[in-house]
């Protein structure tokens, strides 16, 4: 499908205009001219939905008729952001609608801004899920999402007096335009009670689950629109509600009333809010309840739907794939076993073969503190039947392990799903599925060689790599339409829209002066746009010709925002004592949320804001440096930020960042990576070459050796490295107030992320970046090279690999 022009465009506009007017009448009983801002947005969304619904119905029908294998991507987070623009782009009606609105003196871009972000995720993992469902639909693949409909998404961040303050994200306040409640598809989810096997007398055992608490799971479906095709897949979000036959009438004792109130309070808290933690595991009971809630609802509804197609339950694994995004949905393994054994009456052996064929697992971290484990003490009373099943899975698994490694109890322990009273969810995921993948080459390598080594040795063929990707439709075509148009012009066609790897055709043009000039013009335009936003929000005026050096991501010690701000403090202090020290104007940006209970992360935010305030008010250095903290960074602000960047800060301690995906968004928009050899930075470097990025610091192997030998001392580093010592002392000598917590953290935790150790290398790398930036032509060429070689980081490529190598699913052409 190509963009309509001429007569086709006129016809499309006519249809859209009449729909738009009628929709305003039907929804609000108003003429278009009388609509409020929110009503205008809703009318546009409803108009778009009229272009979606026919294809959605068709897609569902044809998937069922053709009995094609379906994939369900289970993720406890889907960080979707706003949906109007991306839906219009995918439908191919953005231009036409813009013109229709123009007839009413309405501006489409203003309407975009009315939509709240669907912020049902913390960061990388949740945004990856959102990119994946976009790419599935773009490639006409039968793949759907399954998640929780949180009433409150990730908190909104305000900075008050330099500190982060968290405001609840009431994103559903004005209703969510894209969801369809499907009460008739509700299922029951059972918690607690008493589970045991009863002898039926005929040699058969039957499961009895007495007195469970029953929660009703109600699905809300969202259409996921394919890019210029007729595919519309589904994202199903589950909401917890009180059971059908729960009602408040009748004669009740005080005690019964109390019980009912407790029940209602419990149920309504299940899907109330998203846990704001993204890198440390805390064994919170409500979190486990959330996990089982959406897993059980999702798997039950998949089996129910599958049976309606009339296919044999023994073919389930050939026709259904369930993907678990990290271990949060790992209970899919046990829940599918429960349904197949208890409800479908299959033998354990048959059920187990089907379950393993069905399930595949992606790991997103090697950080031990993030690995999910649940104590039996909490788990068993809450999910008694699921516990029995996991116990049996493990018993049989252990038998197999002992056959393979006789007299090797160390191996048995290392491979056991249940060990010392805790259930290891990663182990359950590996044993219960047929595929385990990491999210970048180096990450998969570390999984195999260290974190999951015992499992790799046991079942090497399960392990594979799928380097992450991002949807170029949102992050390039949507966020940077001028750059997309320039690429169209340079390549002479729009083939790259569907085949992003074709962007590498730009490689032949990096010597083209005119191209580079246009590219730099667009970069300048985007910097101006961000500068306008910052002036409005922060009240700080920026130089759009300064180098925009940006680090936006969740605040975490291993991502080393602290190293970045310490280095800025160091340069500022040098600038004050050495006139002429600064020669290149730079604007440093930070953005990102800290988990509310993460003290060091919050102190880092406070330090950034205090330093920013000081520097931005200092006339002596202001022509050369400014520091900005971007409040409430998320998907929508990201769309403004990534295109404006010259330098992409990707400075995590090597081995710690599984992949990173922000690095790809920056690259695709022509920023140069300043980074360590960590996660996908390694592959970005391989794609662009060392001349077009700046790499520094310890290698993953060196970091892991230091951990293994304990040969690093932060104290020694502090005492021998003068740059480090001077700037560290500023944390406690009153220069910026009291930041002893950060000082102590660095010294007493022995600088666990090698901030001091990498400081000089980072200093040199930043000097190198500024040197390169001064060479305008060289810089433009590097920017162009980054754009040209970013096509391989489209999630379209990633999804094709999952489809072929893990899921075995194929495009279905909807007609
Ligand atoms: C788990 C249990 C209890 C509470 C919270 C959590 C939880 C929630 C979210 C744990 C982890 C997360 C998110 C992790 C995450 O975003 N990881 C990132 O995944 C990206 C996509 O693969 C990678 O690019 C990043 O490197 C990785 O850090």
From TrEMBL:
Keywords (A to Z) from UniProt: Carbohydrate metabolism, Glycosyltransferase, Pyridoxal phosphate, Transferase
The cofactor required is:
pyridoxal 5'-phosphate
User: What SUPFAM superfamilies is this protein classified in?
Assistant: UDP-Glycosyltransferase/glycogen phosphorylase
The enzyme's E.C. designation = 2.4.1.1
- Domain of life of the native organism: Bacteria
Keyword set includes Repressor: no
On whether Lyase is a keyword of this UniProt record, the answer is no
Class of this enzyme: transferase
The UniProt catalytic activity note for this protein reads: [(1->4)-alpha-D-glucosyl](n) + phosphate = [(1->4)-alpha-D-glucosyl](n-1) + alpha-D-glucose 1-phosphate
Regarding protein family, the annotation reads: Belongs to the glycogen phosphorylase family.
Q: What does this protein do?
A: Phosphorylase is an important allosteric enzyme in carbohydrate metabolism. Enzymes from different sources differ in their regulatory mechanisms and in their natural substrates. However, all known phosphorylases share catalytic and structural properties. Allosteric enzyme that catalyzes the rate-limiting step in glycogen catabolism, the phosphorolytic cleavage of glycogen to produce glucose-1-phosphate, and plays a central role in maintaining cellular and organismal glucose homeostasis.
Protein name per the record: Alpha-1,4 glucan phosphorylase
This chain's source organism reads Selenomonas dianae
């Amino acid at each position: 499908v190509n963009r309509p022009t001429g007569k086709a465009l006129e016809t499309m506009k006519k249809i859209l205009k009449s729909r738009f007017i009628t929709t305003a009448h039907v929804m609000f009983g108003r003429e278009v001219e009388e609509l409020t801002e929110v009503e205008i947005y809703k009318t546009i969304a409803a108009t778009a939905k009229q272009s979606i619904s026919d294809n959605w119905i068709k897609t569902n029908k044809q998937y069922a008729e053709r009995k094609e294998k379906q994939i369900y991507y289970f993720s406890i987070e889907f960080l979707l952001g706003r949906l109007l623009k991306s839906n219009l782009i995918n439908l191919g009606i953005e231009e036409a609608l813009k013109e229709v609105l123009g007839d009413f003196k309405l501006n489409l871009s203003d309407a975009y801004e009315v939509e709240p972000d669907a912020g049902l995720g913390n960061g990388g993992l949740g945004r990856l899920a959102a990119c994946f469902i976009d790419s599935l639909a773009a490639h006409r693949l039968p793949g759907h999402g399954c998640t929780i409909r949180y009433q409150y998404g990730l908190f909104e961040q305000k900075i008050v007096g330099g500190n982060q303050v968290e405001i609840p994200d009431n994103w559903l306040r004005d209703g969510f335009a894209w969801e369809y409640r499907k009460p008739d598809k509700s299922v029951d989810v059972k918690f607690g009670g008493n589970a045991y096997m009863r002898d039926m007398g005929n040699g058969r055992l039957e499961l009895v689950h007495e007195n469970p608490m029953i929660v009703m799971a109600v699905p809300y479906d969202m259409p996921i629109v394919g890019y210029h095709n007729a595919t519309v897949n589904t994202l199903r979000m589950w909401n917890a509600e009180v059971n059908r036959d729960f009602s408040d009438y009748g004669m009740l004792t005080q005690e019964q009333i109390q019980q009912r109130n407790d029940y209602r309070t419990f149920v309504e808290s299940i899907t109330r809010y998203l846990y704001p933690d993204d890198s440390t595991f805390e064994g919170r009971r409500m979190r486990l309840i959330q996990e089982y809630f959406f897993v059980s609802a999702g798997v039950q509804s998949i089996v129910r739907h599958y049976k309606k197609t009339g296919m044999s339950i023994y073919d389930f694994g050939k026709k259904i794939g369930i993907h678990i995004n990290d271990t949060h949905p790992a209970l899919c393994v046990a829940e599918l076993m429960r349904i197949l054994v208890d409800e479908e009456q299959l033998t354990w052996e048959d059920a187990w073969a089907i379950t393993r064929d069905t399930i595949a697992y992606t790991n997103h971290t090697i950080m031990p503190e993030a690995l999910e484990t649940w104590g039996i003490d909490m788990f068993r009373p809450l999910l008694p039947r699921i516990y029995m099943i996991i116990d049996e899975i493990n018993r049989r698994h252990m038998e197999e392990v002992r056959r393979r490694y006789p007299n090797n109890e160390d191996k048995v322990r290392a491979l056991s799903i249940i060990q010392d009273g805790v259930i290891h969810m990663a182990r359950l995921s590996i044993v219960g599925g047929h595929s385990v993948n990491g999210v970048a080459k180096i990450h998969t390598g570390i999984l195999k060689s260290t974190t999951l080594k015992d499992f790799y040795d046991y079942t090497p063929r399960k392990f594979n790599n799928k380097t992450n990707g991002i949807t170029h439709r949102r992050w390039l075509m949507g966020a940077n339409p001028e750059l997309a148009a320039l690429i169209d012009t340079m390549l002479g066609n729009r083939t790259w829209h569907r085949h992003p790897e074709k962007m590498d055709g730009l490689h032949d043009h990096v010597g083209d002066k005119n191209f580079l000039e246009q590219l730099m013009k667009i970069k300048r335009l985007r910097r101006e746009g961000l500068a306008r936003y910052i002036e409005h929000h922060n009240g700080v005026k920026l130089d759009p010709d300064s180098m925009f050096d940006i680090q936006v991501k969740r605040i975490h010690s291993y991502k080393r925002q602290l190293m970045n701000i310490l280095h800025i403090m160091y340069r500022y202090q040098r600038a004050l004592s050495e006139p002429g020290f600064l020669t290149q104007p730079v604007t440093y940006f930070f953005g990102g949320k800290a988990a509310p209970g993460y003290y060091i992360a919050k102190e880092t935010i406070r330090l950034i804001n205090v330093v920013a305030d000081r520097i931005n008010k200092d006339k002596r250095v202001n022509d050369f440096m400014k520091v900005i903290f971007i409040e409430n960074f998320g998907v929508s602000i990201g769309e403004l930020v990534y295109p404006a960047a010259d330098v992409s800060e990707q400075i995590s301690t090597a081995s710690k960042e599984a992949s990173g995906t922000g690095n790809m968004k920056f690259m695709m928009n022509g920023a140069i990576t300043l980074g360590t050899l960590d996660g996908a930075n390694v592959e970005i470097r391989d794609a662009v070459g060392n001349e077009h990025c700046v790499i520094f610091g310890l290698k993953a192997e060196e970091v892991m050796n230091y951990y293994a030998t304990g040969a690093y001392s932060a104290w020694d580093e502090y005492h021998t490295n003068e740059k480090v010592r001077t700037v560290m002392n500023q944390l406690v000598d009153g220069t910026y107030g009291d930041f002893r917590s950060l000082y102590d953290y660095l010294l007493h935790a022995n600088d666990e992320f090698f901030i001091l150790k990498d400081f000089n290398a980072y200093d040199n790398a930043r000097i190198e970046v500024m040197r390169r930036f001064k060479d305008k032509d060289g810089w433009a060429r590097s920017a162009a090279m980054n754009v040209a070689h970013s096509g391989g980081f489209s999630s379209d490529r990633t999804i094709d690999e999952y489809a072929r190598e893990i899921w075995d699913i194929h495009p279905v052409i909807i007609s």
